[in-house]
Amino acid sequence: MADKNVLVLGGGIAGLSAARKLADFDIGVQLIEKSAFLGGHGIQFSCKATDKCVKCGACVVEETLENVVRHPKINVLLNTQTQKITRSDGQFSVTLQKNPAYIDPEKCTGCGLCFEKCPAHGAISRGFSKSNLPFYAISEKNCLFMKDKSCSLCQDTCPEEAITLDQKRTDHVCETDAIIVATGFEAFNPESKPYGYNVFDNVITSLELERTLRQESIVSRPSDNKPPEKIAFIQCVGSRDAKLGHLWCSKICCGSSLRMAKLIRSRQPETEMAFFYMDVQTFGKDFQVFYETVQDDIRMIRAIPGDIFRTETDRLRMAFLDNSTHEILEEIFDLVVLSVGITPGKDTKELADQLHLAVSDSGFLSPSENGIFTAGTALGPMSIAETISNAGNAVWETLKYLRI
Amino acid sequence: MGNVEIFKNLKMKKVTPLTEKTLVIGNGPQARCIAEELLAKDADLIVASEENAFVLPFPEKTEILTGVKIRSCEGSVGNFNLTLDKDGEKVSRIVENVIIAEEAVRKPNFSLYGLTPCANVISLSQLKESLSDDSRPFFKNKKFVFLTGLAKESNAVILEEIMRASLKLQSEFHAKTYILTKNLKVAGHGLELLYRRTKEAGAVYIKFTESQPEIHQQEDDGPVILTFTDDITGEQFRLTPDITVADETISPPENTSDLAAIFGLDTDPHGFLQSDNVHRISVLTNRKGIMVAGPSRDIQSPGEEITDTGNLALSIFKPSDERETASAYKAQINPRLCSGCLTCYSVCPYNAILPDTTASVMPDACEQCGVCAAVCLSRAITIKGLTYIEISDHIEKNTPQKKETFTPFLLAFCCKRSAARAHELASCMGHKLPPGLKIIEVPCAGGVSHYHIFLALRNNADGVLVLTCHEGNCHSERGNLYAHEQLNMIGSFLEIAGFEKERLLIKPLASNMSKEFAEITNTFEKKILDLGPSRFKMKKQDFSFLT
Predict the structure, then answer these.
(1) Domain holding B274: CATH number?
(2) Which of B193, B307, B512 minimises the CB distance to A47?
(3) From its phi and psi, is residue B422 left (phi > 0), alpha (psi between -120 and 50) or beta?
(4) What domain of life is recorded for the organism (chain A) (predicted)?
């Protein structure tokens, strides 16, 4: 087998699976991730098992990530983006711009001292998986050293001398035989919706709930850290929305929100929960049974609420149409979870121009072949399992193209 | 089944040369799609079809067995020995891999809606067939009602077919379509857009939440009348369609349960040939070298069926991994100790045990879970990393020095896929863990035997934890359940002997549950602090059965 190299753009579950499968065929993989951590959205998800596994797939992301960072054929470049791509004689030449990591993964032991000492809010962030190496990252936006060199506390306190703040961005040129684009999705930003996101502390997104459950195991109200008595889930925020031109179902939100609701129910059994929806989508092989039992625990309300208001006691009031009485009802909740949809990545257009890829009417990438292949949610909404399958198929297409 | 019968049914062939052949089992488009894809890459194929015709573009490159039934399959990956029935004759083939790719069965839901099929009450498949036929003037200007997901939940595959049929009826026959459903299953690629298009073309969607339409069919072949109340306005409606179309339930292919038994495959709750386990994504089964695709493994849209083909090809052509565990690491059965009870054979999740007068392990199929070794009453099975000596050494090395104040010595047997990873993450996240906690990483909690537990207790562990994957998430499918049974049993024995069974604890934990890892171990430590130091004593001679 001739030495072949493939560039994989995106370190989420699609890119990780693709990289892993390519490496299994002894292909050299350059895995490019624009953020400081591998794992994409999936690595932030919580395990939603109560006593039994509910097949959300979050653990598979963890396992794939571990396999990728250990694989000798995969070279990971974090904080990196593509600048320019040229193609000649079937070879791609890709100019990559790599921002410095500032923390040396070889030296960092993950002790967390930098994270503790850093005086600037959000300047040092923490990974989600122990396979995120280094486990900490410095954000240029918030770091005081990057701003005016006024602080270098992390560098000075690091017992391993793993931190070097004075570093420059570097350009790399990478020659590759094929490219797999697995740049993932952007979660819908619900600020434009009348739900008071980023105005009221206790209105959060489903992604934020995933992270909370993953890290804290239980949920509390951001405003006062108290356990919420009543939680409302609002589905289809940014999906199936003609006004926004988002004519797609995000596919994963019914499953993830209902599974999280069940998880909260089992850990915080006093919590009352309501689920506002248009249509409940089928997810998982045991959906019929899941759907029947979930209705005992969670109030299913087929309505999408209107504006949300804050009450004097810092709770959230909303109105919706009650189907049985055909009247408008008002109800008060402590926490509102917005199930934000999957939308095309912000830089999809730019990337598509760079790579000469087609973009569909909905703004996602169209499937591509002939040297540049596409995988995962860059193509549209997919579950973790579907993304892994899709990435597998993209790898197969790549192998055929490379004549392996 | 008694041992004698098992032996009778499994006359084992002796070692045969390895082959690179792949057997594809199936009759329909999925099997054909796979065969074509693999043949294009020069795979060495045998296609086995129950039907009498199976046409492929390169017939000379492959052996096509039509009108055959699979009777038995012995051996393991690289060396599956199959017996097939062809016109009453037995045919044998040896293959490296097996792919099962049959077509799904569609059952119309007439009875769920109280309907009897007739000229004006048809199934979705019947309608699709009629629409693919060019001249159907009898659909012209007719009123169609589609019933879907009203009696039980439907899926995106069915809805897509209904919407495509509706669009065709509207555009080509100026028909009027009504779609009655509970939850509109638009979670498929492009379905929301298709839904809008059908609406723009005039389709009327009526969604029910708590109520149901009343469906009356006058006589067995008479017209259908539907009456219902609109959920939002509360108004009463009545519909009298010319043609009523019932949706369908998609079930596994008819021969699925036979194939599951022949190949020793776990199935999902509906009987599809793949357990509902995330470790099987996307075309894998509990057996190495046996893959399932398309409608044999789940309800699938045509797009997903193509994806399966690509994933199958990856599995078939994947070069053998040099780093793959050498056979020295696989389970080993000492024939002098084996009593031939075949407990190992009945529990092995991967069908890696070869039953004979004594059992032996097929190393290529073994995934080193250790379940066999844990249940072996003769202690004839050893597996590297789980042997008495290794675990004993490990515990002794980790036994903390006695301190003046009581610090409970907690030994946690952690599954390498879940709890051991959760422990690492808990350390990364800086969660406070009990100071006397020691971890023993095991390939599967099902590999933890009572010997290991007693070893821990004899080595002065004040508490023993077994941390497993969640039910339905075990790579060895049932290893975690065996572990639960095992620990509960030991607990009850200890209780009879007057020992606190609270010193044993078993919990499920996922790899990403760092906070929960800390909570479980800290709560356990508190419990052991209340109980005080362990009084477990075992004299050397009492322990001789372990050595």
Answers:
(1) 3.50.50.60
(2) B512
(3) alpha
(4) Bacteria
Nearest-Cα distance to chain A for B204, in Å, is 16
A284 is written with which tokens? 């998982």
Q: For residue A155, what are its two tokens?
A: 């560098």
B267 to chain A, minimum CA–CA distance in Å? 11
Q: What is the pLDDT of residue B68?
A: 95
Residue A106: count of CB within 10 angstroms of its CB = 8
* B510 in Cβ contact with B473 (< 8 Å): yes
**In chain B, which residues have their Cβ closer than 8 Å to the Cβ of A220?**
none
Contact A360, B189 (CB under 8 A): no
Could you read off the pLDDT of B173-184 as tens digits, one per residue?
999 999 999 999
Q: pLDDT tens-digit profile of B343-386?
A: 999 999 999 999 988 899 999 999 999 999 999 999 999 999 89
Provide the chain A residues 80-139 that lie in CB contact (below 8 A) with chain B.
Answer: 110, 112, 126-130, 135
| Beta-carbon count within 10 A of B361 CB | 21
- Residues 6+ positions from B393 with CB-CB distance below 8 Å: none
User: pTM of the full predicted structure?
Assistant: 0.95
- What is the C-alpha separation between B456 and A233, in angstroms, rounded? 47
Positions of chain B with pLDDT under 50: 1-17, 322-323
What's the pLDDT score for residue B210?
Answer: 84
The domain defined by A5-99+169-184+345-401 folds into FAD/NAD(P)-binding domain (3.50.50)
Domain A187-342, architecture per CATH: 3-Layer(bba) Sandwich (3.50)
**Residues with pLDDT less than 50, chain A:** none
Q: What are phi and psi of B451, to 5 degrees?
A: -60, -45
